[in-house]
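Handout, page 2. Input:
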Amino acid sequence: MDIAYIPSPSTGVIHLGPIPLRGYAFCIIIGVFVAVWLGNKRWVARGGKPGTVADIAVWAVPFGLVGGRLYHVITDYQLYFGEGRNWVDAFKIWEGGLGIWGAIALGAVGAWIGCRLRGIPLPAWADALAPGIALAQACGRWGNWFNQELYGRATDLPWAVEISAGPNRDAGTYHPTFLYESLWCIGVAVLVIWADRRFKLGHGRAFALYVAAYCVGRGWIEYMRVDEAHHILGLRLNVWTSIVVFVLAVVYFVLSAKLRPGREEIVEPDRSGDEGGKGAAPADADAAGEAKAAEVKDAAAKDALTKDAGAKDAEPDAPKADLAKADLAKADLAKAEPAEAPEAKKL
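Output:
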């Protein structure tokens, strides 16, 4: 009796004339759009401006793709530089092979550059994007389904994935670890959104929660996989990576909560002078202060010039005032003399 299973695509690429449309690439692209869309909504809700998340993603995504590929090639170098291998395959990213650890690490460098250019705190941006990254991973994992890769041990469960015979794989039904991780990432996104609303996480703690929660799932899912990998003390390399990154994320979460409790009040500077932002960046504040000081200085200079001009205008009028007073005195004497004359004649 045939068991139920999840069929795999017969091919991971469809040719539209001379243009190849690869399922793996489509999954990555869809994931990026989902992450930017949700990240933008969360950023605006935090007081940021629409479009900022996409602007910084222009830096983060290319860096992340390069970092993810580098991590995969370095940790699985035997697939590209071993005997009988072609090193050119290391550049064929469409054939699969992106390490999330490298993608996050180098993607953070690109995001840091973009945030610096916009005067935005990286932790706040990372908090806004955290659940979107988890959903992007959920979408991207279906690229492994198109490529028939990263499956688990053989199983006859109804949700097993069917794998056809091919290079470095045997036909059969296996645990669909890509599906397990995709569902886990959706759960991580829901957890981060709930916790952020409930506890108002800030200063990178929502991102740390995403990292820690993802590592928990990646640890047990990675343990189920049967693809070739390096082992340390009986555990796959990525299991050890999950453990180390989990500890670092938890330590950051705890220390951040103690050192910087609460959430950022200002997440994006108001560079245009409108009321769209919640504050001004230090550089903008300095510029505004300098402009105000210049205005005050100009006003003081104008007042000084006005007083000097008034003083100069008043100087020529001083002699005239004295002459006028003298004329008035003479007039008074003139009026007084006729009154005294009759008395002199009587004497």
